[in-house]
Amino acid sequence: MLALVKKTHTEIALSGPGAAALVEWIAKKFEVRMVSGSIEDESVPIEETEFYRRMEANRPGNLLAGSRLKEGLTQKKLAALSGIPQSVISEYESGSRAITKAAATKLAKVLAVQPEYFC
Questions:
Q1: What is the 3-state secondary structure (H, E, C) of the chain?
Q2: Can you tell me the distance from the alpha carbon of 118 to that of 27, in angstroms, rounded to the nearest whole number?
Q3: Span between the terminal Cα atoms of the chain, in Å
Q4: Which of 19, 32, 73, 118 could disulfide-link 27, Cβ–Cβ 3.0 to 4.6 Å?
Q5: 8 Å CB contact between 43 and 68
Q6: How many angstroms separate the CA atoms of 43 and 107, rounded?
Q7: What dihedral angle (degrees, nearest 10) is formed by the CA atoms of 11, 13, 18, 24?
Q8: What's the CA gap between 59 and 117, in Å, rounded?
Q9: With contact defined as beta carbons under 8 Å apart, do 75 and 86 qualify?
Q10: 8-25 per-position pLDDT tens digit
């Protein structure tokens, strides 16, 4: 069940036996607009979405970018720490260049992950 509560705009997804009662209770205090009676009515498996297909197509690059950002590093700083040119890191992240095993080892050392994470 998806509900939209106005003042301030809040979206709530609820499921289970008490969901309808909870929405009813919230509606006593706030304006509520039901978006869907059932989450299953509008949901599709994530594997069927274009977003998922794009992300999976460049999984190593996305994992690299995520790991870099998690560590609070820019591409330039990661390049300095790993010895890999920033332009090459950019190509890895965009998916225009495959991450080699040697590069994965260098990147993994800086980012505190296993090299296999990028392959």
A1: CEEEECCCCEEEECCCCCHHHHHHHHHCCCCEEEEECCHHHHCCCHHHCHHHHHHHHCHHHHHHHHHHHHCCCCHHHHHHHHCCCHHHHHHHHHCCCCCCHHHHHHHHHHHCCCHHHHC
A2: 48
A3: 39
A4: 32
A5: no
A6: 37
A7: 30
A8: 10
A9: yes
A10: 667 777 778 888 888 888
Q: Where are the domains of the chain?
A: 2-42, 50-118
Residue 51 has a pLDDT of 84
Which CATH fold topology does 50-118 show?
434 Repressor (Amino-terminal Domain) (1.10.260)
Q: Amino acid identity, residue 32?
A: V
- Two tokens, residue 49: 């979405």
Q: Could you report the per-residue pLDDT of 20-63, keeping only the tens digit for each? A: 888 888 888 888 877 665 555 567 788 888 888 888 889 999 99
Q: For the segment 92-117, what is each residue's pLDDT rounded down to a tens digit?
A: 999 999 999 999 999 999 999 999 99
